[in-house]
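A note on notation is needed here, since sequence and fold are reported together in a single record. The reader may check this reading against the record printed directly beneath this paragraph.
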Amino acid sequence: MARNDGKRSASGTGPVVKQTALDGRLGEQLVGAAVTGMGFLYHDTTGSDFGIDGVIEITTVEDGQRIATGRQIAVQVKTGDSVVKRTRYGYSLYCTSAHAHYWLNHSLPVIIVHCEPATRYLRWAPVNSDALRSTPNGYSIDIAAKRDFNLASADLVRLASPRIPEPAEGSRSFFIVWNERGVIEGSDEQIGLTALEAAEAASRDDPVSIEVEVRGQAELVAMIDAIGDRPSATAKERRDALQFGAKLDGYEQKAKRLQRALRLFLTDSEFTGALGLGDQPVGDDVMAAALRSLAKDLTGVSEGKDGTCIAAWPDAGRYEPKVVFTITEEQHDRLLASDLPHRAWMQMSEGMSIVDLPRMAFHTRYLPALALRLTYYADDHGIADAEALAHIRVPLYFWAMAYD
């Protein structure tokens, strides 16, 4: 179903449907039809895997029957000219470093298919370290203008060969897209399950790749780097590139900060231990709520809900770094109801222990806010994020809290 931006038309008859949404859906349908025409299977994964729109499963013919082989290829479909530009190389798809790393670390071979909505022509290219070309702001993949996807069946069979090396066993890739309002895109189930898998992998010391992209970042990379890839650029294009570059810098800084905080939250042993992994792990709904809270904290965007502001600090006499977060009124009521002296202690400068927070508030409000705050603390002291808690020398369970 085509997405819309929630706005109503001038006549008030219903939501406005963007042409880009229709074009995107057309591209995915054309790719599915092309794969079916090759005699292969196409599984649509839109909405369940960022950076991947579908999976092709290779089939073979035995005794006149089609047999599924289990050998698969991941597909990213791009439609129109938002990130695919006509350059001196033919066509070039531009992407962020986060997207490139996610594709390279994917458990399946990855291909890009570009669709021209007007002609319905599909061109394609495989994604690998040789195909990715470094640009000043990210990466690009050059796609031959006449490389017809409908004629790619033999190439796809070779690409899906089991001889292709895969990432290390147990490795996990976690890729998220979020917007300037601080909203992580995707369903709670998708976000929570993927994050839990990454945290579980980290608790076993398996490699984990965490990539973050801001919505619109890839488009800025495309607009800037495509200008550089042209034989010549007009004065206006060069001025536009400077303006786009300034905005891109802001996006990249936010994406990097969120990536660092997520890495602490999902891979640091104190955090994974606090999340109960291996014992009584939190559910995917709790994990999703925690990540959404972290993203909101980074942007400073209010959720528009009433709440109580809490401050936490290492211990008595050590009030830095201070971590500030908001708990819901329900969580606040549960905190005070658990013990009558709690109300008085929360008013006192020494406060009470952070472990007295309700479990949901501890996991979804305190821990995410702490992970983000520690990245700034690490910057202030010139240390790695992973060294921040050791530098403070107070385990996260033993911090004090009071009203901010």
